[in-house]
Amino acid sequence: MEKPDPRRKILFYLNPESNDAERYVCDEIDRLPQGERGKVWRAALLAGFALRKQDPRLPNMLAEFLNEHTTFDEMITLMQAVFPAEMKRLESHRPAGRTVQPPPETPADETRDNARNMFAYGRKDSD
Q1: Sign of the CA dihedral 38, 42, 48, 51?
Q2: 66-99 as b/e: b if 16+ CB within 10 A
Q3: If you count Cβ atoms within 10 Å of the first and of the last residue's Cβ in the chain, which end, N or C, has fewer?
Q4: Averaged over 6-18, what is the pLDDT?
Q5: Segments forming the whole domain that contains residue 88
Q6: Which of 11, 87, 21 lies closest to 55, judged by CA?
Q7: How far apart are CA 57 and CA 62, in angstroms?
Q8: Is 66 helix (H, G, I), strand (E, B) or coil?
Q9: In a domain, 12, yes or no
Q10: What is the total count of domains within the chain?
């Protein structure tokens, strides 16, 4: 009697024309050596589920911000909105030199603008 294979094959499509995040990921995949891609995809999926374990909204929210200009500060701001007390405790452990100035404003899609406004990142009245 043959034992069933417990492994899972995950298959989905990314469409670089659909949004900035998928375009960024497709570009990054193209830069990876062929032999490393599977490990990176697996790690990215597991990392997304690690974030989801903390808050089911988090992977989707982080993915909405992802593009070639995404800064460390944007990710931190989003995490602060979801975990204000926890992120405040971690503030003293922030890696040196990780702050990057946001790029000049470029036209963004409505979802990204809404997410930025929801977390007061980049709004003029949040200064």
Answers
A1: negative
A2: bbeebbeebebbbbbebeeeebeeeeeeeeeeee
A3: N
A4: 93
A5: 20-126
A6: 87
A7: 9
A8: coil
A9: no
A10: 1
Confirm whether 45 is domain-assigned.
Answer: yes
The pLDDT tens digits for 54-104 are 999 999 999 998 999 999 889 888 989 999 988 888 877 766 665 544 445
Distinct helix (H) and strand (E) counts, the chain: 6, 0
> Does 102 map to a domain?
yes
Q: How far is CA 17 from CA 21, 22, 27, 86, 127, in A?
A: 10, 8, 12, 36, 34
Angle formed by the axes of helices 58-65 and 72-82, nearest 10°: 150
Q: What is the pLDDT of residue 99?
A: 53
Tokens 């800064």 -> residue: 71
The reply to whether 7 falls in a domain is no
